[in-house]
Amino acid sequence: MEKWAGKDLFQGYGMTPLLEVQDLHVSYGAASGKSGVALAGVSLRLLAGETLGVLGESGSGKSTLAAALLRILPANGIVECGAVRFDGRELLQCDAREMEKIRGGRMALIFQEPSQALHPALRVRQQVCDVLAAHTDLSRAALRERTGRVLAAVFPTETERIARSYPHELSGGQRARVLIAQAICCEPALIVADEPTASLDAETQMEILQLFRRLREEFKLALIWITHNPALLAGFADRVMILYAGRVAEVGPTAEVLFSPRHPYTQALLRCLPPGLGKGYVGRKTKLAVIPGVAPVTLRDAGRCVFEARCSDRMDACVSGEPELVCVAGKQFVSCVKYAG
Amino acid sequence: MDRRRVRRWFVALLVLHAVVGGAGFLAPYDPVKQDREHAYLPPMRVHFLGRGHLHLRPFFYAERLREGTFDEFEEDTEKAIPLRFFSTGEQYRLLGFLPSRRHLFGAEGARLYLLGSDGLGRDQLSRMLYGGQISLLAGLLGAGGTIFVAAMIGTVAGFYGGWRDTLLMRLAELFLALPWLYLLFALRAFLPLTVSPLRAFLLVVVVLAAVGWARPARLVRGVVLSVKERDFVRAARGFGAGDAYLVRRHILPETRSVLLTQAAILVPQFVLAEMTLSFIGLGIPEPVPSWGNLLAILQQYSVLVSYWWMYLPALAIVPFFVGYQGLANALHVDGVTVKIEGKRGGTHHDIGTRFSPAQTD
Questions:
Q1: Global ipTM
Q2: Is the entire prediction scored with pTM above 0.80?
Q3: How is domain B127-343 classified at the architecture level of CATH?
Q4: CATH number assigned to the domain covering A1-45+57-94+228-275+292-341
Q5: A 162-191 near B (Cβ less than 8 A)
């Protein structure tokens, strides 16, 4: 918390943010009594209507961040400290009933795996309707009418057939759209999308992105878009945040982070992408770049830079303390000693 | 899972229960009506042939004591009594409320004991049919109560976890470990020596439900534990679903298969338990018949070795046992699958949400 005191890292963002996360620590307890840290001090701010892309490899804490924001961590997940201010309320202090109103009402979460996130034995119409019913006092007829409108917004064609279907009768892309319908039906201010397109093919991914672009305009939505695919964020997110070992490595406007990355990890990560087909020949002999070393075990107080062991630019200062987020240019922040001081 | 199999067993059980439920009509006599002249009369034969003629109407011969004996009977071939179908006889109330005098069969002049008579000359067939009503009702009510209690306790323990889970499951273990028969002796000792049949019946039902809930509750808890961590349940939470909604829409439907299977297992077990209780005299008191107290007479050695037809009530439970076990096995699948199949004209969709099958012991 002290790191933040007196320092507004997002100067120039004068407006009150819609969501403000400060120094969030989350860990998972194991039956043996040990606990594994998933997030070790993540802070972020999000304005109304803004899209933040969260990028990171497996185990970097992306999904934990999403679940922690809505306080639906698995039973063994514990928020150790931190603050989540949303819509003028401190979410970590809300009681269960208030949280139920917020989830799906003001802030909705789209789960990772569309095929697992829908009730297998309820019709699509019913599942969307149930979300509406949980948050409004509409009559049955009004509920049905609004459900129809929401479904029509995500399924321009075949609305009626899909409304009558069970999830197992739909394709992956259609299931993802049902989840989106559930998320938008109460017109939330923020949608947290946890890799909603990860299991879809490239064309369907683009369709879903296109749908989000439209909905974002229509409902003035703020979005937190979690993904491990940087290509999806270009031209879609306003800002990008890079997570590494439960910490923010770099955050800034999409163009800056993706095209002139400052943090050695971001640079290495983006180098690992296969070159575009137009630029260079990708054949059997082409070797893709890798980041040497293994993904780290997330620690609470590492006492050093967590990327130090795999970093190509390591210096003596890397092991003398954890680097803080510092502003490098405009709104781009990096946690690396190279830019400190 | 074969939906047709469930239906077949269900229909078979329905027929069996209809036989017992229709005791008033199917039984020729009042189960408590005595005929001391004909005590311990062996099952009588129904004849079609007599004096060299084939009779279209079946008949039986009245029985009389063989000369020089006091408990051996012989057919009095002089007295041929024709069987009458759909005859009027003693007044009864079908299923306890529909008054009627019509019986499937009967005879005038002498009583027909198809399955013999007991020591007071009461018709064993009628007593078996009426006794089944009491025993099965005790089993069904006991199982219903047990399943209800088990669903509540298992859901609370599994869904909320924590100290509630610990408390309820330790309690369940305690109940599993209790020697409930002796507990029942103790309970019975608190009540007056003779209790009315109704109170005795309710006592039996309550005791059955009280001792039986532990195992199904543990099974339900297991299902609830695995369901509540599934992705779609967490996703529903992410959309603002409250506890009541999750229990109603997500948790209880998933426990249905386990509960139905357990109910099908419990009913015959409870009927058997009722029989045990009544056999040792702690259940339904005389003269009201139940399968258990029909067998109680076998405690007398002379009856045990002399009158084999007094064992017949013990066989009555067999078809019910087979039927319920068959139903339990057929039900042994995920309820969700059943539902979807039913709505979609019988095609089988594996929607990948099965649980390990419920225990059937």
A1: 0.79
A2: no
A3: Orthogonal Bundle (1.10)
A4: 3.40.50.300
A5: 166, 168, 179, 182-183, 186
